[in-house]
Amino acid sequence: MPGENLSTLDKIRIKIRRLTKSPSQSQLSDDSINDYVNNFCLYDFADHLKLTYLRTTLTFYTSPNIDVYNTTTLPVTDPLYNFKNRYQVVDGPMYISGKPLFFTQSREQFYAMHPQYMQVSTIPSLGNGITTQYSGLLSNIPVLANTITFNSIDANNNAIYVSDNGILNANGTLQLTRPNQVFVAGTATDCGFINPLTGVYTVKFPVAPANQQKIFSQTYAYAAAWPQTILFYDTSFRVRPVPDMVYTVNMEVYRRPSAFLSDTQEPELAEWWQYIAYGAAKKVFEDRMDPDSVQIIMPEFKKQEELILNRVAAQQSDQRVPTIYTENSNLGSVFYFNNGSY
What is the rounded end-to-end Cα distance, in angstroms, of the chain? Predict the structure, then answer.
């Protein structure tokens, strides 16, 4: 077929060598060119152009009684793994098991809609100046992870407190630790546990509460239900109400272009190959501190960019511009990762 395989990585490298006048490996190795190509594709390309061809659907799943879904420390098989680097833009609407989901990046707005008022209670036992370990059962359950604190006062009138570390153990309990200390079993940071669903707890203070001193628990009790609101903040998604079962969270995202991993690989659209070649060549000149060459190739670089955008414009030309009167026009939200939003 005429023109077949004209846009492979191998052809892109040839174009870059011609543009940069670097015909030999000693001047510019294939590995270096591959790095320039992938650097441009993964970072510059996606920032310059938001293309419909890079728009896709992302789905993740909630778990019962879990409100926070982290996007940085999950297993690589999880849809949210390395979320902020794999995706640039989330483009609404967002849905949870088919129902529209209100999206926000504002903690003020989120907690105004779903206040998180802590309940402060006294546990039945009083301090005696000797005992450091106390066990019991909370009355208001279930309680939310990362909101649980036990506190009191020691004989020197110093505050003593332990909190949960937010990590659910295999047996369904949360570890209690001293704040800002890494938990190590069997050490001073091992301050007991609490079952957030049943309220059963054992708390170990670093020093004994003073004689006749009250011991307080501070928790956030919740009623699990179908979530209606989602907050993206501090590289995590947080939902309210807290889910009572598994739900499907569905959103539209703009992903980054795929990296080139083989000589025969092509970009998602074959027509992008020259734009990628000019973009990578521009980076070569920038590293060589050659601004004159950068200026020479910029007109063609911009021309290739316009050609790509022309196709997008043609694709969208028959789409009605959304207005306040457009059906469901208020369901969408957009946020960008690379504009200082976190």
Answer: 48
Determine the residue type at 269: L
CA-CA distance, 222 to 115, in Å (whole number)? Answer: 11
Residue in 37, 3, 222 with CA at minimum distance from that of residue 119: 222
pLDDT in tens, 112-160: 999 999 999 999 999 999 999 999 999 899 999 999 999 999 999 999 9
Give strand pairing partners of 152: 160
Span 219-248, mean pLDDT?
94
Note the pTM of the prediction, 2 decimals: 0.77
Classify residue 197 by burial, with Cβ atoms within 10 Å: 0-12, 13-18, 19+.
middle
The span from the CA of 259 to the CA of 243, in Å, is 36
Measure the CA–CA gap between 12 and 26, rounded to whole angstroms. 18
Residue 35 to residues 29, 88, 132, 281, Cα–Cα distance (Å): 10, 21, 58, 11
Query: For 8-22, 118-132, 260-274, 302-316, which range has the lowest pLDDT when averaged over its residues?
Result: 302-316
Angle between helix axes 291-316 and 273-287 (nearest 10 degrees) is 150
Question: Tokens for 137?
Answer: 């059962």
Cβ contact 72:84 at 8 Å = yes
User: Measured between alpha carbons, how far is 178 from 165 in angstroms, rounded to an integer?
Assistant: 9
Element (H, E) at 202: strand 200-204
Compute the half-sphere exposure of residue 74: CA atoms within 13 Å on the CB side of its CA: 18
Task: Say what percent of the chain tops pLDDT 70.
Answer: 87
**Are the beta carbons of 49 and 24 closer than 8 angstroms?**
no
* Cα–Cα distance, 36 to 236 (Å, whole number): 31
Q: How many other C-beta atoms can be found within 10 angstroms of the C-beta atom of residue 136?
A: 16
